[in-house]
Design goal:
Blueprint (H helix, E strand, L loop, with lengths): L2 H9 L12 E10 L2 E15 L6 E8 L2 E8 L5 E8 L29
Antiparallel strand pairs: 1-2, 1-5, 2-3, 3-4
Amino acid sequence: MDKLKLVEQSLVNEDVPHFTAGDTVNVHYRVREGDKERIQQYEGVVISERGNSSNKTFTVRKISSNVGVERIFPLNSPFIAKIDVKKKGKVRRSKLFYLRELRGKAARIQEKDSRK
């Protein structure tokens, strides 16, 4: 086996829940300020995923004070304490960049039926 792949497999975080674009997630992110550390929650809609295995990243978009804020998180970052999937979205795209232009009710995503 390739040495690079061996190192990448050791970095993969196994306890990450499965989520895709359109899902609403709550990311608990460790923030270090000086010598103190606290956990900051960032809740929003996953608009894209990219990469694979250890270098996978996902972009989360939320609206804060009527301003759209996007943040890119590395999936296997040691600073991510926990990821909660709040609801599953029903979308037919893997990249939801069109949400950047939509506002209010138009930017809503239908919830996926959990019975199926």
